[in-house]
């Protein structure tokens, strides 16, 4: 039975669920607004409800207007898409430092400054003079960006591969703990490894033995392209090609080719070097390559879902590539600010987002474009700045609070990975990392999604904070996208730091205006612009939904900053063992 408690003209439900509670609170807020404006009666209330359908207290002290203004600046043409090492980086870093100063933060970078140096190697492959697969009686030419997309992480002036055998390795997963090995001891030295994207159970039917072995539709790290390139390098392959399909990759071919042949990496040597060539091949092109070798790629996809699968060498097929490479070395920068804790300055709570986007490049038609990155991840940076303002406006936190703007996330989480390897505050005493990457611009919502939900207790704290907002936190609705392995919290998780990451690509917002259908439309429209030039600022955005999400992380982070609580990884998490090794420095926690 549903009851209400009435005070004057304001009534709120005492039970009936989170949505009923939230709607009751909103009616209260709107009723008071109507009275203050002298708008009595049902007609006046309805008018105000349409104009102000959520109380600002839900996202206080976060300002949607300031967030929008920050995204407008970061996504402007003047910042040229914020590519690492570009003039756009210099402008971005200078602007961020000025924001940190205006807020009143302290420098948290190297040598008492605002930045941390991140050494990068930049390569860009040119138009190939040769790109083909040769067979016994014929040759199949391939076209860069149409059939295949390749880059290199090696500092070579020419990318040259001559008559390398191609070996299909299925999903390319070596997971002894799951009883799975796609390689079966195959020798990949000097060969091109051809992988399927995602996990072995991604396309599995319920009656197949592999179903659920890797989390079903939820991608594990084994399904990520980064893992597949790493595994190819560990096994001595000269190159790695991943067969692209939109469902498994979670993005279109246009996203694959968006970097325009360039690649960033942290320069490696010796055994740590990446494969000479890494890239993708479209499904139509791969099907043709296999067919001319007498193989049926669709049938091999099915075989690859069996634990008994063995690698298949494409008969009499030899891959050749000859392309020029431009190589340069540069220093990019993480931008770091902090508020030093008054009681426990050696303990840290961290908020972060990446400042970089894809810069200036050419689209598939050869036109010069700026990939503005206003939402990805101007929205996250705007959130970090708002949280910093909120902390500065209050009492000095007991623990140190750090605010990070990372470089080179779009190039492989390089800035955050560099920090995790060279921390400016002890990771053993970093209580949690909060990451924001792609926040929604469609307005207030009844729900919020947590990527990688169930990993640690700080995620539980975010769920509790969402409930107090009158919202519900849900696990990501599209775990096949592997969002947990695609943002800057991941290097911290690998280092054992508990994490909570909000990425509004993780599901359809249930919007106050329009419900799930309107939320689905927003996300589908945004994904068309993902990593494209049309990810640009718009005055039509309703940033209040993003502000709600930012307020969630601020609330949980603030509680941690004024406590001695240490979030914990859940039993069974792949990151728990690393954290456990440093428990002694946290009093056994």
UniProtKB/TrEMBL annotation:
Which of UniProt's keywords are assigned here? Answer: Aminopeptidase, Hydrolase, Metal-binding, Protease, Signal, Zinc
* InterPro entries per UniProt: M28_fam (IPR045175), PA_dom_sf (IPR046450), Peptidase_M28 (IPR007484)
Source organism, top-level taxon: Bacteria
Entry annotated with the keyword Cytoplasm:
no
> Where does the record place the Peptidase M28 domain?
334-553
Q: Where is the signal peptide?
A: none
Name this protein carries in UniProt? M28 family metallopeptidase
Q: Tell me yes or no: is Protease among this UniProt entry's keywords.
A: yes
